Known about the structure:
By secondary structure, this protein is mainly α. It has 7 helices and no strands. The protein has a single domain (3-148), classed as Orthogonal Bundle (Ribonuclease iii, N-terminal Endonuclease Domain, Chain A). The chain has helices at 3-19, 26-32, 51-71, 76-86, 89-98, 117-134, 139-148. Helix 2 (26-32) runs antiparallel to helix 6, helix 3 packs across helix 6 and helix 5 packs across helix 6. This is RNAse III, putative. Pfam families: Ribonucleas_3_3.
Amino acid sequence: MSTFHQVLEWKATGVEETIGYKFADRAVLKEALLAPGSVPLAITTERTGNKDLAQIGDAVLRLILILDGYIAKADRAKINDVVSPMVSNPNLAAKGFKVGLEQHILANPSQQGLVSHGVMANAVEAILGAVYLDSNLNTQAVRSAMACLGLAWPVGKTTD
C-alpha cells in the first residue's frame, strides 16, 4: 500500500470516529475527503474531488433539517429561518473546524496544506453525502452524523 493510501486510510478512520459512523465502503468516505485537485495526476486523472458527494450531502442535509422542522411542527418561515443559516458555508466550515475535520481532509497542494473555509464546508457536505450513500439512503444514519457535527434541528424550535 502506498504512503498516499495509508494516509487516506488514517484520515478515514479519524472521520469515522468523529461522526460515529463506520463505513461499509470506505472508498466513498475517502472520496469525501478529497478536495478538488488534491490527488496527484499520477494516481488519478479525476480532479473534481468531493464535489459530487458534496452536492448529495447538501441536498440530504437540507432534507433532514426540513423534515425535522416539519416533525417539530414548525411553520415554513421558522423552518427557513433555521435551515438557511445552518446549511450556510460559513456555518458548515465552523462546525467542521470545531470537531477537527481539517486534519482529515486532503487539500489541494496549491493551498499549502491549509484547509480553507470553502473546502471545509464542501467536505462536511461530502461526508454527509457519503454517509447517505453508504447507509443505503438511511436518513437516520445521516441525522446521527449531523448531530456529531452540531448540525441537528434545535430542540424546542417550532412556531415562536
